[in-house]
């Protein structure tokens, strides 16, 4: 059973580690510079900032930037998500309660229902929505004026957004994965806020296993802190970090238990593939969506797994990473096999 108090503590720690302004925000140099110009110009005009769309993988700072936008504009923020808005009425209730200049953060905006999405078009462009009263031939549309507000949409799958919605955002920023050096800066900042003494070598060890993602880096830092407090002298150095991450099954490239399970099943049960995603998910005892959305993107990015028309295939790098030799498989027609010769 999950301890609800522990979950609240983790959320509180994550909130405490979030940067409060653009000056504190590490990484995403181009997005940060562009966004700074947008916000400075809006403040100089005394106007509400343009609507902002942030895309990128989970954990890169989209929610943090939305909070920074509100702080920089001196405005309150309302936070909701696409899956929570299943009807146009849900969106109308939120929009009608906004105050002038308020920031509405809509996470996973691509998962919003189509009727709500169509209502959002008019709200973003004209600051107005039409509320339908009644049903059938007697239904009446009542126009409802909205105060100027800033919508900050976040999505992990920008390609699923329809063009009419994308085009209504005044600024679009794509969040990139972090370089190890940037993650080390994030870790040193977080360690200072947590009161944890962290050496440069310790921060580098954690950064190298964090998948280029600040959220993962901060989570691993907290687990390494626990290990250092219980089994070491409380200092997060290279040795304590490596030992702690071994306990938590995070290897030197950042692969966790699920990642290695997927690769091992692919190599040992299916000879490296190709194999269908559904079959692979059954082999590791996980849902198809979990394998596809959690493990697969990182394995593909690391060059350990490839998607092909026939299914998922392990690359030679995957065999080497797990200390195994790729089989030599001559292809039809006398050409080289899938893994080369």
From TrEMBL:
EC code: 3.6.4.-
Protein residues bound to ATP: 17-18, 59, 62-64, 125-127, 168, 178, 215
Residues bound to Mg(2+): 63
Region (Head domain (RuvB-H)): 252-341
Catalytic reaction annotation: ATP + H2O = ADP + phosphate + H(+)
Record-level Gene Ontology MF annotations: ATP binding; ATP hydrolysis activity; four-way junction DNA binding; four-way junction helicase activity
Domain of life from the UniProt record: Bacteria
Function, as annotated: The RuvA-RuvB-RuvC complex processes Holliday junction (HJ) DNA during genetic recombination and DNA repair, while the RuvA-RuvB complex plays an important role in the rescue of blocked DNA replication forks via replication fork reversal (RFR). RuvA specifically binds to HJ cruciform DNA, conferring on it an open structure. The RuvB hexamer acts as an ATP-dependent pump, pulling dsDNA into and through the RuvAB complex. RuvB forms 2 homohexamers on either side of HJ DNA bound by 1 or 2 RuvA tetramers; 4 subunits per hexamer contact DNA at a time.
Assembly notes: Homohexamer. Forms an RuvA(8)-RuvB(12)-Holliday junction (HJ) complex. HJ DNA is sandwiched between 2 RuvA tetramers; dsDNA enters through RuvA and exits via RuvB. An RuvB hexamer assembles on each DNA strand where it exits the tetramer. Each RuvB hexamer is contacted by two RuvA subunits (via domain III) on 2 adjacent RuvB subunits; this complex drives branch migration. In the full resolvosome a probable DNA-RuvA(4)-RuvB(12)-RuvC(2) complex forms which resolves the HJ.
Matching PANTHER family: HOLLIDAY JUNCTION BRANCH MIGRATION COMPLEX SUBUNIT RUVB, PTHR42848
Protein name, entry field: Holliday junction branch migration complex subunit RuvB
